[in-house]
Amino acid sequence: MAFPDPALPARVRIHEVGPRDGLQNEAAAVPVEIKAEFIRRLAATGLDTVEATSFVHPRWVPQLGDAERLMELLAQAGLPAGLRLPVLVPNRRGLERALALGVREVAVFGSVTESFARANLNRSVDESLAIFEPVVARAKEAGMRVRGYLSMCFGDPWEGAVPVARVAGAGRRLLDLGCDELSLGDTIGVATPGHVGALLTALGEAGVDAARTAVHFHDTYGQALANTLTALRHGVTTVDASAGGLGGCPYAKSATGNLATEDLVWMLHGLGIETGVDLGRLTATSVWMAAHLGRPSPSRTVRALAGTPSHQES
Amino acid sequence: MAFPDPALPARVRIHEVGPRDGLQNEAAAVPVEIKAEFIRRLAATGLDTVEATSFVHPRWVPQLGDAERLMELLAQAGLPAGLRLPVLVPNRRGLERALALGVREVAVFGSVTESFARANLNRSVDESLAIFEPVVARAKEAGMRVRGYLSMCFGDPWEGAVPVARVAGAGRRLLDLGCDELSLGDTIGVATPGHVGALLTALGEAGVDAARTAVHFHDTYGQALANTLTALRHGVTTVDASAGGLGGCPYAKSATGNLATEDLVWMLHGLGIETGVDLGRLTATSVWMAAHLGRPSPSRTVRALAGTPSHQES
Fold this sequence. Notes:
Chains A, B: Belongs to the HMG-CoA lyase family. With about 325 residues, chain A is an alpha/beta fold.
């Protein structure tokens, strides 16, 4: 039974990040055949966007050192024709590797804060943008769609709360470079709904349309879904999520898991918002992946649906 | 850093249910001295309402068979003068036991659906109300404050989705019997934000003021905080929550945990909403209780704060 709210969008596009953002944090690398099968199953649930991998140097993220082989396997997997399979590219070299494999959509990854830019990317915020500029230009020239990730949009472990004006400025610059879409990351999961509203308002004032803005929440403090609901009220229609809540280690002291796609779909379908996703198949996919990883899914919806029949969907 | 929203209340009263709703589900009974210490620590965090126990017959809930002894211990515990310590009373006999111990506030517990009334209370909905009538009357006569719980307000495992008009009618009847406040329970955790809005609108149309309505969400599908945010937008200012997310077994297949008080407080303080609660002390209390129970707290905020410094509160 669905209860639509006219203040919310009729349809939401889910940008599934489990295979990339989830699996890049696994201590033990997942075999490339399992990754390809995971993506095949995710596509079969009706998801129309699955971020497949990252063309980062294997020295930095050895878990994704199989990016070429994965894309070859996916090309033979008989995936749905309209499926979007973006990949992350950290620099020009990564972009060329992706282009050589026929990738149609890429994402670049920047930080809003100097501390995280230094710690994670080993460069300043301005240096990052300078590196992105030719990457984005070349990708657009090749007819690709380009997403710009911004991390630490709400809080930073070293700098504390991040001013919304600074995030709005960085977002505006990524769009000016040619990015088609922004993804606002709450990397350490500290955002609350009022902060989400304030940031989206500031972005709007900087000329960034909510229709070009995705949100990427982590459930570290349990706020991801309440924050998502607030973003939808501000006109956002693209939400990043990770099947089964993959990403980080949810049972570690400092949980950093992504919003679980299943928890998101449960809310959206309850609100009568279309996603195109079959929740039963998605849950089965996450249960399958959890068995492979040898630990239960942190998604509450996965745990509930895997144990009992769904009361909402019947 | 707080981001207030003028559409939300300035202050929320948290009705802490951990000692009763949480501990009644523990397989092994918790020693009464630990319960008393738990309540003492909860009160010291600034919570102004802590539901202490239930005067149900020990045959049904043996975990709470120590209700008399607990109240005696609490009377000697030097609790803050204004602290509210409601107890659940299932019938006239329970009420008399509570009155004899000087309890000032009680709650009665009804179901909206016939199936759950039969399964949990072994009587029909109308029979429950008939039993409550003299209980509420006697409690009011004795100058007590009375809360009326309604369970299965959104979905029922046997009956599926529950019509909002039926819940509104049951709520209206409990107030007509003399209850001061309603608590709307999503016992199986299936509610989504649109459903919450629809129910609160129906209650308003039945003459039930949101100011007299509390919400009681379970996080079975991860929806509790998004639902709470929606309830606040509809004028609700009392929210039930359980310290550390106690209640049910969050690691079992069908998780049925209560909304964790810490996750709620993180959101409310981020929105600039006063609670009077010290989040650090509350987290420490839940860590202490989790150590006693021998398993980690399912609250994401507890896990995050217990492992790393708080970025929001600094």
